Amino acid sequence: MARNSNDANGATDREVVIVGGGPAGCSAGVFTARYDLDTVVFDRGRSSLRRCAHLENYLGFPAGMDIETLYDLFHDHAREAGCDLRSDLVESVERRDDDGFLVELQSGDPVTTDRVVAATRYGGEYLLSLDEAAMVTTREHDGEVHETFDDTYPAADGTTPIDGLYVASPSGASRQAIVAAGRGARTALSVVEDVRRGRGVPEPVVDHYDWVRRRAELDEEWDDRDRWREWFAQRLPDELDPESPALASVRESEIDRVFESYVDEDEIERRRERGQQRLLDHVDDDLIVERARVIEDRTAPERADD
Questions:
Q1: CATH architecture of residue range(s) 14-198
Q2: Of 13, 55, 160, 288, which residue is least crowded by CB atoms under 10 Å?
Q3: What is the 3-state secondary structure (H, E, C) of 144-159?
Q4: pLDDT tens digits for range 73-129
Q5: Within 13 A of 282's CA, how many CA atoms are on the CB side?
Q6: pLDDT digits (tens, 9 = 90+) for 260-297
Q7: How far, in whole angstroms, is CA 98 from its chain's centroid?
Q8: Is the pLDDT of residue 4 over 80?
């Protein structure tokens, strides 16, 4: 995916670097990449989820899910959204003199980026060169005092005192996979909202909603660009002129994004079928064949009656 020319000045390799390809990192990547931010996810290191025998409390899988298949689903979803997934270990993140960050890798050349999302369950040592004093806390274990990354350093929305640095994990709220995924998504929304601010979107409308809606629910009133222009203007403080060239451009882009989020019934059905087909890509072929035979046997009497 090419960099978005509207963001920063294109002087870095990537708009977003995510460290960690588990539930927090991939969830964050889905949201940033779907907002057309050039996102790379580095995934190689210790994984708490891979230590599980079988995950039984992740919503949407009534009988649980084996870890290998779940990871494949995470990564497939991230790639589908537009993320570049790379198997490499991030050794350090450092500030660049001009702007952004330099991400040093165990193998390969370093990567420059505008924003970093930390999403590794175990430790944040690769971040310590950025703000070591504030990021470090001491904890006692087996009678010994250890210095570790302070998982209370980020705010609840993943933001940190360092502009452009976000932490989805480690945090005190990331010990369950489904919670980690939610925190990754919330952190990514903070990234997107900061990008929107940088692009001139006014604060009252900076919130970002990533959803697809039914075209049938778009009534006559709201199926009108002028109505959305009124909505936009009503949310601006008095000192801002919605007809100024800069704000008018932002407004029209926002309205375009709103209308693009509505799909008709044919498109809904197409996406439903494609979504289920993609799930089949992760199901064991023998199980699919076995299930097909059950369906075949069950429908055979109906076909005979016909």
A1: 3-Layer(bba) Sandwich (3.50)
A2: 288
A3: EEEEEECCCCCCCCCE
A4: 999 999 999 999 999 999 999 999 878 999 999 998 999 999 999 999 877 889 988
A5: 17
A6: 999 999 999 999 999 999 999 999 999 999 999 999 98
A7: 27
A8: no
Strands of 53-169 (E only): list them: 84-86, 90-95, 101-105, 111-119, 136-141, 144-149, 165-169
Q: Are strands 84-86 and 39-42 parallel, antiparallel or unpaired?
A: parallel
Q: Are 247 and 204 in contact (CB under 8 A)?
A: no
pLDDT in tens, 131-141: 888 998 887 77
Stretch (H or E) spanning 130:
helix 128-135
pTM of the model: 0.91
**Residue 303: per-residue pLDDT:** 62
Q: Which tokens go with 148?
A: 């570790």
Least Cα distance to 160 among 78, 93, 90 occurs for: 93
Distance, CA of 37 to CA of 24 (rounded, Å): 17
3-state secondary structure of 139: strand
Strands (DSSP E) along 177-231, which ranges?
213-214
